[in-house]
Amino acid sequence: MNRKHKSPPKVFCVAYVAGSIDGRISESNRSKMHWTSKEDRNFFQKSLGKFDAVVTGHNTYRMAETRLKKRNTIVFTSKVNKPRLSGSVVFFNPRKSDFIKFIKNQNYKKLAILGGPKVYNFFLKNKILHELFVTIEPYVFTTGVPMFAGDKFKKYKFCLKSVKRLNKKGTLLLHYQYAN
User: Residues in domain DHFR (predicted)?
Assistant: First the structure.
């Protein structure tokens, strides 16, 4: 009898980011300014219910700590050497531990990636970002935190799946699929 070895199920990763027309996601790394539309917040909250866990950077986690403590959250940080659990939150250093192995051991099938720029870049660089939802709010910041922060230039190709206008003010929701 010839048995085929089943490979472990793939983890599906979807990033969510809200940005200004000029591609900024906040005024600064420590900014707690709430500038996104209520329509974007409603879409975002409704979407998160579909995921086993969320992944954020330390600054993003601090800004939304109260809400994120209520769900399975993985916080990327350089301040730990091995995964550290605190309630439903795991502080994780992807430079010191194998992230893919960790999420498979947790039996996570779907992850929501919530930023910031270095976290988005980690998923791009490791080719584990499958979809991207970008909300474009009708603002120009001229300075601030960019959506993505890579250490060197690299082009990643995405395919536009849909565009939805969220409100009369001009907020747009773009849905992309990774195409490299």
Answer: 31-135
As a whole number, mean pLDDT of residues 156-172 equals 97
Report the b/e string of 137-150 with b at 16+ CB within 10 A. bebebeebbebbee
Report the run of H or E that residue 68 belongs to, with start and end.
helix 65-68
CATH number at residue 143: 3.40.430.10
Separation of alpha carbons 41 and 62, rounded Å? 18
The predicted model scores a pTM of 0.90
In a domain, 113, yes or no: yes
At 150 the pLDDT is: 80
Q: For the chain, what percentages of helix, strand and coil (3-state, to nearest 5) are there? A: 20, 30, 50
Structural domain that includes position 153? 12-21+38-178
